[in-house]
Specification:
Layout lengths: L2 H29 L1 H21 L12 H12 L15 H15 L2 H13 L4 H11 L20 H29 L4 H16 L18 H16 L1 H10 L8 H25 L11 H18 L11 H13 L12 H15 L5 E3 L2 E3 L1 H29 L3 H12 L14 H16 L1 H8 L19
Antiparallel strand pairs: 1-2
Helix pairs in contact: 1-2, 1-5, 2-3, 2-4, 2-5, 2-18, 3-17, 5-6, 7-8, 7-9, 7-10, 8-9, 9-12, 10-11, 11-12, 11-13, 11-14, 12-13, 13-16, 14-15, 15-16, 15-17, 16-17, 17-18
Subcellular location: Cell membrane
Protein name: Trk-type K+ transport system membrane component
Membrane topology: Multi-pass membrane protein
């Protein structure tokens, strides 16, 4: 007799609970977009940690240790490419599929992904959801304060930006797959195996992850310059960022109509690409373990390949552990800079470097404002750029000290791998696979902070944004 009214009551409670959870999530997306974005990434990492922990994910059918499963999940979602296990031999076909899906999900970007989920929750792309997506193209929006400069992507264009993100990812990876497939067959890969390896390599290049699906990595293809060139092209397209792809899609070759962000990203990327290659040639041409045994053409090509991948790609033909210490320092500098904002690359971003370089140049010339291409860069952008560098350097320094103390490994090797993790590059001197569990957790946290972004992380931690209605007297301390 009592079961009749109980069932409808339980149903109403469940429906009410579901509505409450949905309202809480909607409130979170509107009150703190940055925190919601971080929550999305944490949730994804937790989910993929569980998937990697399943016995079916390992080639030997055994449960993968928690530290390795967590590290692989962070490296996959953060599109880093570092690994504590042999990514080819350790994982089963299911594990490789999990990795393939994970890097594509992570490549969408923490804020863009949060925007899509916010859209699903809100059933429409409202102003707040647009602000989240616009924040991926300009981190200043996350602070919630006034933004004086012209935005990289206007709010009305965010829907188009999200479509560009999805379409560009699909089209570029498909194009790379088509180019890579015949090259893999020509290199002796079985046609059926190439059907899997071609899209895998395409995804790893465009997402700037650097995982490889075969034994020996890229070493068997060291002389296949077409395949390596395609991978470099994928790394470049992934590293310039979705807002730049959006600008190129709309304006194509009308350079004068490009946004300032697109101009700074393309120019700085090209300069670093050629400068890095030139420095690697000068430092490694007489090293028999790297370029010393190659002819002039091979040395030139491989130097460009190293330059492109130390900025974020993570692919390597030559073992990074064989490079001179001076080359590792140069590689660390390139990794720390990384790629473009709102891209699959990590680091402090090339626009951050460009803004600081322009600020230093303007100061040296005695100018009162920072200008580029007929536009003025406001002081708040300069402050954010300086903050990103300061926070990034702090994270790298603390992580290096902790890991060096825990592992007792050479500090120069630890520093290289820490910067590689922070900048989500994926290159390693070989110590990452040998780290004890406590050091693995520290490096995983470093990768997470590097991918989420120092500006986003700082905005997520801040409880509220406060406005100051007064100003204090000015007094100039002595600096320098």
């Amino acid at each position: 007799m009592a079961t009749g009214p109980v069932a409808p009551r339980v149903g109403r409670i469940l429906v009410k609970g579901a509505v409450t959870i949905r309202d809480e999530l909607r409130s979170l997306t509107t009150s703190s977009p940055a925190r919601f974005a971080v929550l999305v990434f944490v949730t994804l990492i937790g989910l993929f940690t569980v998937l990697y922990s399943l016995p079916i994910a390992a080639a030997d059918g055994r449960r993968t240790p928690f530290a390795d499963a967590l590290f692989t999940a962070v490296s996959t979602i953060c599109v880093t490419g570092l690994a504590t296990v042999d990514m080819n031999a350790h994982w089963s076909a299911f594990g490789h599929v999990v990795t393939y899906v994970g890097v594509n999900v992570g490549a969408l970007g923490v804020l863009t992904l949060a925007s899509i989920l916010g859209l699903v929750i809100s059933k429409r792309l409202g102003l707040r959801a647009k602000l989240i997506a616009a924040g991926e193209s300009n981190p200043l929006r996350i602070h919630g304060g006034p933004v004086n400069e012209g935005q990289t992507v206007r709010l009305g264009e965010v829907g188009q930006l999200l479509a560009t993100v999805a379409l560009s990812t699909l089209i570029i990876e498909a194009g790379l797959t088509i180019l890579l497939y015949p090259s893999l067959i020509w290199a002796g890969v079985d046609p059926l195996v190439a059907l899997w390896e071609a899209p895998y390599y395409a995804a790893m290049s465009f997402t700037n992850t650097g995982f490889v699906p075969n034994d020996g990595g890229l070493v068997p293809f060291a002389d296949d310059y077409f395949l390596l060139s395609v991978l470099m092209a994928g790394v470049f397209l992934g590293s310039i960022g979705f807002p730049v792809i959006f600008t190129l899609w709309r304006q194509r070759w009308h350079v004068k109509q490009w946004s300032l962000h697109a101009k700074l990203t393309i120019i700085t990327t090209v300069i670093l690409f050629f400068a890095g290659a030139g420095v690697f040639v000068l430092l490694e041409f007489n090293n028999p373990a790297t370029f010393g045994s190659m002819d002039a053409w091979d040395t030139t090509f491989q130097s460009f390949f190293v330059s492109a991948n130390t900025r974020s790609g993570g692919f390597a033909v030559v073992d990074m552990g064989d490079f001179h210490g001076s080359s590792l320092v140069v590689g660390s500098m390139l990794m720390f800079v990384g790629g473009g904002s709102a891209s699959t690359a990590g680091g402090i971003k090339v626009t951050t470097l460009a803004v600081l370089a322009l600020a230093v140049w303007s100061e040296a010339k005695g100018k009162g404002s920072v200008e580029a291409f007929g536009r003025r860069i406001p002081s708040d952008v300069q402050r954010v750029a300086l903050s990103v560098v300061a926070w990034g350097a702090t994270i790298v320094a603390i992580s290096t000290i902790l890991i060096a103390q825990i592992s007792q490994a050479p500090v120069e090797d630890v520093l290289f791998d820490v910067i590689s993790g922070f900048a989500t590059v994926g290159l390693s001197t070989g110590i990452t696979a040998e780290l004890p569990d406590p050091a693995i957790y520290v490096l995983a946290a470093t990768m997470f902070m590097g991918r989420v972004g120092t500006v986003t992380l700082a905005a997520a931690v801040a409880a509220t944004s406060r406005s100051q209605l007064y100003s204090l007297p000015v007094e100039r301390p002595i600096v320098g």
